[in-house]
Amino acid sequence: MAERQKIDARGAFCPGPLMELIAALKLASIGDEVDVWSSDKGSASDIPAWCAKVGHSVVEASEHDGYWSVVVRKAK
Amino acid sequence: MSKTILIVGGGLAGTIVANGICRQMGAELRSGALNITMLGTSETHMYQPGLLYIPFGRMREAELFRDQRKVLDKRVNFFVDPAKAIDVEKNQVTTEAGRTFKYDYMVLATGSRIMPQTIPGMKEGGHWFYDLDGARKLRTALNEFKGGKIVINVNAPHKCPVAPLEVAFMLHDYLKAKGLWDKAELTYTYPIGRLHALEPVAHWAKPEFEKLGIKYETFFNTESVDPQAKTIKSMEGSELPYDLLITIPPHQGAQVIDDSGLGKGGWVPTNTKTLHREGSANVFVVGDTTNIPISKAGSTAHFEADVTIDNLVSLCQENTFAREYDGKVFCFVETGLGSGTYVWFNYTTPPNPGPPSQMIHWFKLAYNRLYWLSARGLL
Ligand SMILES: Cc1cc2nc3c(=O)[nH]c(=O)nc-3n(C[C@H](O)[C@H](O)[C@H](O)COP(=O)(O)OP(=O)(O)OC[C@H]3O[C@@H](n4cnc5c(N)ncnc54)[C@H](O)[C@@H]3O)c2cc1C
Protein backbone atom coordinates (compact mmCIF):
# COMPACT_ATOMS: atom_id res chain seq x y z
CA MET A 1 0.00 0.00 0.00
CA ALA A 2 1.37 3.39 -0.98
CA GLU A 3 1.84 5.73 1.98
CA ARG A 4 1.73 9.51 2.29
CA GLN A 5 4.10 11.06 4.76
CA LYS A 6 4.03 14.70 5.84
CA ILE A 7 7.15 16.72 6.58
CA ASP A 8 6.48 20.00 8.29
CA ALA A 9 9.66 21.89 7.39
CA ARG A 10 8.21 25.34 8.04
CA GLY A 11 10.87 27.52 9.65
CA ALA A 12 13.51 24.83 9.08
CA PHE A 13 16.64 26.73 8.07
CA CYS A 14 18.99 23.76 8.02
CA PRO A 15 18.98 21.29 6.34
CA GLY A 16 15.75 22.71 4.84
CA PRO A 17 12.74 21.37 2.96
CA LEU A 18 14.43 19.99 -0.16
CA MET A 19 17.09 18.13 1.81
CA GLU A 20 14.36 16.69 4.07
CA LEU A 21 12.46 15.56 0.99
CA ILE A 22 15.56 13.90 -0.52
CA ALA A 23 16.20 12.06 2.74
CA ALA A 24 12.57 10.93 3.06
CA LEU A 25 12.43 9.66 -0.53
CA LYS A 26 15.46 7.43 0.14
CA LEU A 27 13.44 5.53 2.76
CA ALA A 28 10.17 5.54 0.79
CA SER A 29 8.94 2.84 -1.59
CA ILE A 30 8.10 3.52 -5.22
CA GLY A 31 4.60 5.02 -5.37
CA ASP A 32 4.78 6.51 -1.85
CA GLU A 33 4.09 10.22 -1.50
CA VAL A 34 5.80 12.85 0.60
CA ASP A 35 3.99 16.10 1.40
CA VAL A 36 6.56 18.79 2.24
CA TRP A 37 5.46 21.98 3.96
CA SER A 38 7.76 24.93 3.61
CA SER A 39 7.57 28.53 4.71
CA ASP A 40 10.29 29.52 2.27
CA LYS A 41 9.21 30.42 -1.22
CA GLY A 42 12.50 29.26 -2.74
CA SER A 43 11.80 25.65 -1.82
CA ALA A 44 8.37 25.84 -3.43
CA SER A 45 10.13 26.27 -6.77
CA ASP A 46 13.32 24.26 -5.98
CA ILE A 47 11.37 21.10 -5.16
CA PRO A 48 9.52 20.82 -8.51
CA ALA A 49 12.76 21.76 -10.34
CA TRP A 50 14.67 18.99 -8.59
CA CYS A 51 11.87 16.44 -9.14
CA ALA A 52 11.90 17.23 -12.86
CA LYS A 53 15.68 16.60 -12.99
CA VAL A 54 15.50 13.28 -11.14
CA GLY A 55 12.17 12.00 -12.48
CA HIS A 56 9.89 12.03 -9.43
CA SER A 57 6.40 13.43 -9.98
CA VAL A 58 4.87 16.44 -8.28
CA VAL A 59 1.25 15.49 -7.70
CA GLU A 60 0.10 18.66 -5.96
CA ALA A 61 1.52 22.08 -5.20
CA SER A 62 -0.49 24.63 -3.29
CA GLU A 63 -0.06 27.87 -1.42
CA HIS A 64 -1.63 28.16 2.02
CA ASP A 65 -1.70 30.80 4.69
CA GLY A 66 2.01 31.61 4.96
CA TYR A 67 3.38 28.32 3.64
CA TRP A 68 3.60 26.10 0.58
CA SER A 69 2.76 22.42 0.32
CA VAL A 70 4.31 20.23 -2.39
CA VAL A 71 3.32 16.58 -2.70
CA VAL A 72 5.90 14.39 -4.45
CA ARG A 73 5.42 10.79 -5.56
CA LYS A 74 8.51 8.58 -5.65
CA ALA A 75 8.82 7.32 -9.23
CA LYS A 76 12.02 5.28 -9.16
CA MET B 1 7.91 4.39 45.22
CA SER B 2 11.22 4.64 43.43
CA LYS B 3 11.16 6.09 39.89
CA THR B 4 13.45 4.97 37.10
CA ILE B 5 14.74 7.11 34.25
CA LEU B 6 16.19 4.90 31.53
CA ILE B 7 18.52 6.51 29.01
CA VAL B 8 19.21 4.55 25.85
CA GLY B 9 22.46 5.74 24.24
CA GLY B 10 25.54 7.10 25.96
CA GLY B 11 26.72 9.58 23.34
CA LEU B 12 26.61 13.32 23.75
CA ALA B 13 22.87 13.83 24.33
CA GLY B 14 22.37 10.83 26.65
CA THR B 15 25.43 11.71 28.72
CA ILE B 16 24.42 15.36 29.19
CA VAL B 17 20.90 14.32 30.24
CA ALA B 18 22.19 11.73 32.73
CA ASN B 19 24.70 14.09 34.34
CA GLY B 20 22.29 17.02 34.41
CA ILE B 21 19.61 15.05 36.22
CA CYS B 22 22.13 13.80 38.77
CA ARG B 23 23.17 17.35 39.49
CA GLN B 24 19.60 18.51 40.13
CA MET B 25 18.22 15.47 41.91
CA GLY B 26 20.91 14.59 44.44
CA ALA B 27 18.43 14.19 47.30
CA GLU B 28 16.19 11.78 45.39
CA LEU B 29 19.18 9.74 44.24
CA ARG B 30 20.49 9.56 47.81
CA SER B 31 17.17 8.49 49.28
CA GLY B 32 16.58 5.91 46.56
CA ALA B 33 13.46 7.70 45.27
CA LEU B 34 15.11 7.97 41.85
CA ASN B 35 17.39 5.75 39.88
CA ILE B 36 19.07 6.57 36.57
CA THR B 37 20.13 3.79 34.26
CA MET B 38 21.98 4.15 30.97
CA LEU B 39 22.43 1.55 28.24
CA GLY B 40 25.40 2.06 25.94
CA THR B 41 27.45 0.24 23.34
CA SER B 42 30.97 0.85 24.62
CA GLU B 43 33.13 1.56 27.68
CA THR B 44 34.61 4.51 25.81
CA HIS B 45 33.05 7.78 24.71
CA MET B 46 34.26 9.14 21.38
CA TYR B 47 34.50 12.85 20.61
CA GLN B 48 33.12 12.67 17.07
CA PRO B 49 33.96 16.21 15.87
CA GLY B 50 37.63 15.31 16.40
CA LEU B 51 37.40 12.81 13.55
CA LEU B 52 37.65 15.72 11.12
CA TYR B 53 41.23 16.36 12.26
CA ILE B 54 42.46 12.74 12.13
CA PRO B 55 43.04 12.50 8.35
CA PHE B 56 45.17 15.66 8.44
CA GLY B 57 47.26 14.51 11.41
CA ARG B 58 45.93 17.42 13.47
CA MET B 59 44.61 15.24 16.29
CA ARG B 60 45.81 11.95 17.67
CA GLU B 61 43.39 9.06 18.00
CA ALA B 62 43.90 8.86 21.75
CA GLU B 63 42.64 12.43 22.08
CA LEU B 64 39.21 11.35 20.83
CA PHE B 65 38.46 8.90 23.62
CA ARG B 66 37.56 9.03 27.29
CA ASP B 67 36.37 6.34 29.64
CA GLN B 68 32.57 6.69 29.65
CA ARG B 69 32.37 5.85 33.35
CA LYS B 70 34.62 8.83 34.06
CA VAL B 71 32.56 11.15 31.87
CA LEU B 72 29.36 9.98 33.59
CA ASP B 73 28.30 10.91 37.09
CA LYS B 74 29.03 7.96 39.37
CA ARG B 75 25.40 7.78 40.43
CA VAL B 76 24.33 6.63 36.94
CA ASN B 77 23.97 2.85 36.59
CA PHE B 78 25.79 2.35 33.32
CA PHE B 79 25.54 -0.92 31.38
CA VAL B 80 27.49 -1.69 28.25
CA ASP B 81 24.60 -3.72 26.92
CA PRO B 82 22.90 -2.32 23.81
CA ALA B 83 19.12 -2.12 23.64
CA LYS B 84 17.70 -4.78 21.36
CA ALA B 85 13.96 -4.19 21.62
CA ILE B 86 12.22 -1.09 22.94
CA ASP B 87 8.60 -1.57 23.97
CA VAL B 88 6.91 1.77 24.62
CA GLU B 89 3.58 0.09 25.44
CA LYS B 90 5.04 -2.04 28.22
CA ASN B 91 7.54 0.65 29.30
CA GLN B 92 10.46 -1.72 29.00
CA VAL B 93 13.65 -2.32 27.04
CA THR B 94 15.32 -5.67 26.44
CA THR B 95 19.01 -5.80 25.75
CA GLU B 96 21.44 -7.83 23.68
CA ALA B 97 22.47 -9.71 26.83
CA GLY B 98 18.84 -10.61 27.52
CA ARG B 99 18.18 -8.26 30.45
CA THR B 100 14.89 -6.39 30.74
CA PHE B 101 14.81 -2.82 32.05
CA LYS B 102 11.52 -1.21 33.13
CA TYR B 103 11.20 2.55 33.20
CA ASP B 104 8.93 5.37 34.34
CA TYR B 105 10.58 7.78 31.92
CA MET B 106 12.77 6.90 28.97
CA VAL B 107 15.17 9.08 26.99
CA LEU B 108 16.01 7.87 23.50
CA ALA B 109 19.47 9.14 22.51
CA THR B 110 20.77 6.55 20.08
CA GLY B 111 22.19 9.05 17.58
CA SER B 112 22.80 8.50 13.86
CA ARG B 113 25.30 6.53 11.82
CA ILE B 114 26.69 6.45 8.30
CA MET B 115 25.20 4.00 5.82
CA PRO B 116 27.57 3.85 2.80
CA GLN B 117 26.18 0.36 2.10
CA THR B 118 22.89 1.89 0.92
CA ILE B 119 24.54 3.26 -2.25
CA PRO B 120 25.94 0.73 -4.73
CA GLY B 121 29.76 0.82 -4.80
CA MET B 122 30.16 3.53 -2.16
CA LYS B 123 31.56 1.27 0.54
CA GLU B 124 34.15 -0.21 -1.81
CA GLY B 125 35.01 2.94 -3.77
CA GLY B 126 34.77 5.69 -1.17
CA HIS B 127 36.73 7.14 1.73
CA TRP B 128 35.16 9.02 4.64
CA PHE B 129 36.02 10.44 8.03
CA TYR B 130 32.67 10.02 9.83
CA ASP B 131 33.89 6.99 11.79
CA LEU B 132 37.30 6.07 13.18
CA ASP B 133 38.08 3.32 10.72
CA GLY B 134 37.17 5.62 7.81
CA ALA B 135 39.24 8.50 9.21
CA ARG B 136 42.28 6.21 9.52
CA LYS B 137 41.93 4.97 5.95
CA LEU B 138 41.52 8.51 4.68
CA ARG B 139 44.67 9.56 6.58
CA THR B 140 46.58 6.81 4.75
CA ALA B 141 45.05 7.77 1.39
CA LEU B 142 46.02 11.41 1.91
CA ASN B 143 49.54 10.44 2.93
CA GLU B 144 49.86 8.49 -0.31
CA PHE B 145 48.16 11.08 -2.52
CA LYS B 146 50.52 12.46 -5.16
CA GLY B 147 48.01 14.39 -7.26
CA GLY B 148 44.84 13.84 -9.27
CA LYS B 149 41.12 14.36 -9.01
CA ILE B 150 39.52 14.48 -5.56
CA VAL B 151 35.75 14.50 -5.21
CA ILE B 152 34.17 15.53 -1.90
CA ASN B 153 30.68 14.10 -2.16
CA VAL B 154 27.94 15.08 0.30
CA ASN B 155 24.79 13.00 0.74
CA ALA B 156 21.51 13.61 2.56
CA PRO B 157 20.78 13.21 5.37
CA HIS B 158 23.99 13.68 7.33
CA LYS B 159 25.03 14.95 10.75
CA CYS B 160 27.18 18.01 11.36
CA PRO B 161 26.11 20.11 8.39
CA VAL B 162 29.38 22.07 8.35
CA ALA B 163 31.91 19.22 8.32
CA PRO B 164 31.77 18.76 4.50
CA LEU B 165 32.67 22.41 3.86
CA GLU B 166 35.29 22.30 6.58
CA VAL B 167 36.97 19.26 5.08
CA ALA B 168 37.11 21.01 1.69
CA PHE B 169 38.84 24.09 3.12
CA MET B 170 41.16 22.02 5.29
CA LEU B 171 42.06 19.79 2.37
CA HIS B 172 42.95 22.83 0.29
CA ASP B 173 45.27 24.13 3.02
CA TYR B 174 46.75 20.66 3.59
CA LEU B 175 47.53 20.06 -0.09
CA LYS B 176 48.87 23.57 -0.51
CA ALA B 177 51.25 23.06 2.41
CA LYS B 178 52.46 19.79 0.88
CA GLY B 179 53.01 21.49 -2.49
CA LEU B 180 50.34 19.29 -4.09
CA TRP B 181 47.54 21.78 -4.68
CA ASP B 182 48.72 22.50 -8.24
CA LYS B 183 48.67 18.80 -9.03
CA ALA B 184 45.17 18.29 -7.61
CA GLU B 185 41.69 19.09 -8.83
CA LEU B 186 39.10 19.30 -6.06
CA THR B 187 35.38 19.06 -6.82
CA TYR B 188 32.71 19.38 -4.13
CA THR B 189 29.23 17.99 -4.74
CA TYR B 190 26.10 18.90 -2.77
CA PRO B 191 22.55 17.51 -2.85
CA ILE B 192 20.63 20.79 -3.31
CA GLY B 193 21.07 23.82 -5.55
CA ARG B 194 23.74 25.58 -3.49
CA LEU B 195 26.92 24.72 -1.59
CA HIS B 196 25.36 24.43 1.85
CA ALA B 197 21.92 23.96 3.35
CA LEU B 198 22.16 27.30 5.17
CA GLU B 199 21.70 30.02 2.60
CA PRO B 200 24.09 32.59 4.13
CA VAL B 201 26.79 29.93 4.57
CA ALA B 202 26.32 28.90 0.94
CA HIS B 203 26.60 32.52 -0.22
CA TRP B 204 29.77 32.96 1.77
CA ALA B 205 31.30 29.65 0.62
CA LYS B 206 30.79 30.17 -3.13
CA PRO B 207 33.22 33.07 -3.64
CA GLU B 208 35.64 31.42 -1.19
CA PHE B 209 35.61 28.26 -3.33
CA GLU B 210 36.09 30.32 -6.49
CA LYS B 211 38.98 32.23 -4.94
CA LEU B 212 40.74 29.00 -3.96
CA GLY B 213 39.95 27.18 -7.20
CA ILE B 214 37.69 24.52 -5.64
CA LYS B 215 35.22 23.32 -8.27
CA TYR B 216 31.66 22.40 -7.36
CA GLU B 217 28.57 20.69 -8.64
CA THR B 218 25.20 21.24 -6.98
CA PHE B 219 22.03 19.10 -7.28
CA PHE B 220 24.20 16.01 -7.00
CA ASN B 221 22.61 13.06 -5.17
CA THR B 222 24.68 9.94 -5.51
CA GLU B 223 23.11 7.06 -7.37
CA SER B 224 26.14 4.78 -7.53
CA VAL B 225 29.91 4.56 -7.37
CA ASP B 226 31.97 2.43 -9.74
CA PRO B 227 35.13 1.49 -7.79
CA GLN B 228 36.80 -0.09 -10.85
CA ALA B 229 36.18 2.73 -13.33
CA LYS B 230 36.60 5.25 -10.44
CA THR B 231 33.52 7.24 -11.30
CA ILE B 232 30.59 8.52 -9.28
CA LYS B 233 27.14 8.98 -10.79
CA SER B 234 24.30 11.19 -9.62
CA MET B 235 20.54 10.66 -9.77
CA GLU B 236 20.46 13.93 -11.68
CA GLY B 237 22.39 12.30 -14.53
CA SER B 238 25.97 13.51 -14.15
CA GLU B 239 29.12 11.44 -13.76
CA LEU B 240 32.45 12.50 -12.24
CA PRO B 241 35.79 10.69 -12.44
CA TYR B 242 37.88 10.54 -9.28
CA ASP B 243 41.26 9.37 -8.03
CA LEU B 244 40.22 9.88 -4.40
CA LEU B 245 36.57 9.95 -3.37
CA ILE B 246 35.84 11.51 0.02
CA THR B 247 32.19 10.97 0.76
CA ILE B 248 29.83 11.99 3.52
CA PRO B 249 27.57 8.93 3.21
CA PRO B 250 23.82 9.16 3.85
CA HIS B 251 22.87 8.53 7.49
CA GLN B 252 20.22 6.60 9.35
CA GLY B 253 19.35 6.34 13.01
CA ALA B 254 20.11 3.27 15.13
CA GLN B 255 18.95 -0.16 14.02
CA VAL B 256 17.11 -0.74 17.31
CA ILE B 257 14.74 2.16 16.56
CA ASP B 258 13.75 0.65 13.23
CA ASP B 259 13.57 -2.88 14.66
CA SER B 260 11.30 -1.73 17.49
CA GLY B 261 8.91 -0.02 15.07
CA LEU B 262 9.71 3.41 16.53
CA GLY B 263 10.61 5.13 13.27
CA LYS B 264 11.56 4.36 9.70
CA GLY B 265 15.28 4.66 9.07
CA GLY B 266 15.85 5.00 12.82
CA TRP B 267 14.33 8.51 12.99
CA VAL B 268 11.82 8.82 15.82
CA PRO B 269 8.77 11.02 15.21
CA THR B 270 9.26 13.71 17.87
CA ASN B 271 7.30 16.73 19.01
CA THR B 272 9.42 19.71 17.89
CA LYS B 273 8.85 21.63 21.15
CA THR B 274 8.27 19.19 23.99
CA LEU B 275 10.65 16.56 22.52
CA HIS B 276 8.17 13.84 23.45
CA ARG B 277 8.12 10.81 21.21
CA GLU B 278 4.83 11.32 19.31
CA GLY B 279 2.28 9.21 21.18
CA SER B 280 4.22 8.73 24.45
CA ALA B 281 3.97 11.10 27.42
CA ASN B 282 6.88 9.40 29.22
CA VAL B 283 9.37 9.03 26.35
CA PHE B 284 11.68 11.88 25.33
CA VAL B 285 13.90 11.94 22.25
CA VAL B 286 17.13 13.95 22.11
CA GLY B 287 19.97 14.41 19.64
CA ASP B 288 20.42 13.04 16.16
CA THR B 289 17.73 10.38 16.38
CA THR B 290 14.76 12.78 16.33
CA ASN B 291 12.96 13.34 13.04
CA ILE B 292 12.86 17.10 13.72
CA PRO B 293 13.84 18.92 10.51
CA ILE B 294 16.85 20.72 11.98
CA SER B 295 20.62 20.15 11.91
CA LYS B 296 21.90 16.95 13.44
CA ALA B 297 24.70 18.48 15.48
CA GLY B 298 26.31 18.37 18.88
CA SER B 299 24.90 21.77 19.76
CA THR B 300 21.37 20.63 18.87
CA ALA B 301 21.88 17.57 21.08
CA HIS B 302 23.16 19.82 23.87
CA PHE B 303 20.28 22.34 23.75
CA GLU B 304 17.70 19.54 23.51
CA ALA B 305 19.33 17.73 26.42
CA ASP B 306 19.19 20.88 28.60
CA VAL B 307 15.46 21.25 27.97
CA THR B 308 14.87 17.56 28.68
CA ILE B 309 16.80 17.71 31.97
CA ASP B 310 14.59 20.57 33.17
CA ASN B 311 11.43 18.79 32.07
CA LEU B 312 12.35 15.45 33.65
CA VAL B 313 13.32 17.09 36.92
CA SER B 314 10.07 19.09 37.00
CA LEU B 315 8.01 16.04 36.14
CA CYS B 316 9.69 13.91 38.82
CA GLN B 317 9.57 16.58 41.51
CA GLU B 318 6.39 18.54 40.81
CA ASN B 319 4.58 16.67 38.07
CA THR B 320 4.73 19.71 35.80
CA PHE B 321 6.42 20.51 32.52
CA ALA B 322 9.20 23.13 32.67
CA ARG B 323 9.86 24.50 29.20
CA GLU B 324 9.91 23.97 25.45
CA TYR B 325 12.78 23.65 22.98
CA ASP B 326 13.06 26.68 20.68
CA GLY B 327 14.97 24.93 17.88
CA LYS B 328 18.35 26.47 18.73
CA VAL B 329 21.38 25.27 16.78
CA PHE B 330 24.90 26.72 17.01
CA CYS B 331 27.80 25.71 14.80
CA PHE B 332 31.42 26.68 14.48
CA VAL B 333 32.65 26.55 10.88
CA GLU B 334 36.34 25.95 10.20
CA THR B 335 37.24 27.98 7.12
CA GLY B 336 40.74 26.60 6.73
CA LEU B 337 43.46 25.26 8.98
CA GLY B 338 43.78 28.65 10.70
CA SER B 339 40.49 30.56 10.56
CA GLY B 340 36.86 30.04 11.45
CA THR B 341 33.41 31.54 11.86
CA TYR B 342 30.16 30.57 13.61
CA VAL B 343 26.47 30.58 12.98
CA TRP B 344 23.34 30.15 15.13
CA PHE B 345 19.59 30.06 14.47
CA ASN B 346 16.37 28.68 15.93
CA TYR B 347 12.82 27.94 14.72
CA THR B 348 12.14 31.65 14.27
CA THR B 349 15.53 33.39 13.88
CA PRO B 350 17.36 32.90 10.57
CA PRO B 351 21.11 32.25 10.54
CA ASN B 352 23.58 35.09 9.96
CA PRO B 353 27.26 34.09 10.10
CA GLY B 354 29.91 36.70 10.82
CA PRO B 355 33.17 37.09 8.89
CA PRO B 356 35.78 34.34 9.49
CA SER B 357 38.58 35.14 11.89
CA GLN B 358 41.56 33.43 13.43
CA MET B 359 40.12 34.05 16.87
CA ILE B 360 36.99 32.02 16.11
CA HIS B 361 39.20 29.20 14.85
CA TRP B 362 40.95 29.24 18.23
CA PHE B 363 37.56 29.17 19.95
CA LYS B 364 36.64 26.08 18.00
CA LEU B 365 39.92 24.42 18.92
CA ALA B 366 39.24 25.35 22.54
CA TYR B 367 35.74 23.94 22.20
CA ASN B 368 37.29 20.67 21.07
CA ARG B 369 38.77 20.46 24.58
CA LEU B 370 35.66 21.85 26.30
CA TYR B 371 33.48 19.09 24.86
CA TRP B 372 34.22 16.91 27.84
CA LEU B 373 33.09 19.60 30.25
CA SER B 374 29.88 19.99 28.31
CA ALA B 375 29.25 16.22 28.31
CA ARG B 376 29.76 16.29 32.07
CA GLY B 377 27.13 19.01 32.23
CA LEU B 378 29.56 21.66 33.46
CA LEU B 379 29.00 23.98 30.49
C1 LIG C 1 33.21 14.02 11.71
C2 LIG C 1 32.17 14.67 12.56
C3 LIG C 1 32.28 16.00 12.89
C4 LIG C 1 31.33 16.61 13.66
N1 LIG C 1 31.52 17.93 13.99
C5 LIG C 1 30.61 18.55 14.75
C6 LIG C 1 30.81 19.91 15.13
O1 LIG C 1 31.81 20.53 14.79
N2 LIG C 1 29.85 20.52 15.85
C7 LIG C 1 28.72 19.85 16.23
O2 LIG C 1 27.86 20.47 16.89
N3 LIG C 1 28.51 18.56 15.92
C8 LIG C 1 29.42 17.88 15.20
N4 LIG C 1 29.24 16.57 14.88
C9 LIG C 1 27.96 15.91 15.21
C10 LIG C 1 27.84 15.43 16.63
O3 LIG C 1 28.92 14.60 16.97
C11 LIG C 1 26.54 14.67 16.79
O4 LIG C 1 25.47 15.43 16.27
C12 LIG C 1 26.27 14.35 18.24
O5 LIG C 1 27.21 13.44 18.71
C13 LIG C 1 24.86 13.82 18.45
O6 LIG C 1 24.68 13.36 19.74
P1 LIG C 1 23.75 12.10 20.04
O7 LIG C 1 23.87 11.86 21.49
O8 LIG C 1 22.43 12.29 19.42
O9 LIG C 1 24.43 10.92 19.22
P2 LIG C 1 25.82 10.21 19.52
O10 LIG C 1 26.74 11.14 20.20
O11 LIG C 1 26.23 9.61 18.23
O12 LIG C 1 25.44 9.07 20.56
C14 LIG C 1 24.56 8.02 20.28
C15 LIG C 1 24.98 6.86 21.12
O13 LIG C 1 23.97 5.86 21.10
C16 LIG C 1 24.61 4.61 21.05
N5 LIG C 1 23.68 3.57 20.59
C17 LIG C 1 23.31 3.28 19.32
N6 LIG C 1 22.51 2.20 19.33
C18 LIG C 1 22.34 1.84 20.62
C19 LIG C 1 21.63 0.77 21.26
N7 LIG C 1 20.93 -0.12 20.55
N8 LIG C 1 21.68 0.67 22.60
C20 LIG C 1 22.41 1.56 23.35
N9 LIG C 1 23.11 2.56 22.78
C21 LIG C 1 23.08 2.70 21.43
C22 LIG C 1 25.79 4.84 20.13
O14 LIG C 1 26.77 3.85 20.30
C23 LIG C 1 26.26 6.20 20.60
O15 LIG C 1 27.19 6.10 21.64
C24 LIG C 1 30.20 15.89 14.12
C25 LIG C 1 30.08 14.54 13.82
C26 LIG C 1 31.06 13.92 13.05
C27 LIG C 1 30.93 12.45 12.75
Automatic annotation (TrEMBL), chain A:
Domain UPF0033: 7-31
Domain of life: Bacteria
Gene3D superfamilies assigned to the protein according to its UniProt record, in alphabetical order: TusA-like domain (3.30.110.40)
Family: Belongs to the sulfur carrier protein TusA family.
PANTHER family: SULFUR CARRIER PROTEIN TUSA (PTHR33279:SF2), SULFUR CARRIER PROTEIN YEDF-RELATED (PTHR33279)
Protein name as catalogued: Redox protein, regulator of disulfide bond formation
From TrEMBL, chain B:
SUPFAM superfamilies: FAD/NAD(P)-binding domain
InterPro entries to which the protein is assigned, alphabetical: FAD/NAD-bd_sf, FAD/NAD-binding_dom, SQRD
Segments forming domain FAD/NAD(P)-binding: 4-292
GO MF entries: oxidoreductase activity
Protein name, per record: NAD(FAD)-dependent dehydrogenase
Source organism per UniProt: Paramagnetospirillum caucaseum
Organism placement in taxonomy: Bacteria, Pseudomonadati, Pseudomonadota, Alphaproteobacteria, Rhodospirillales
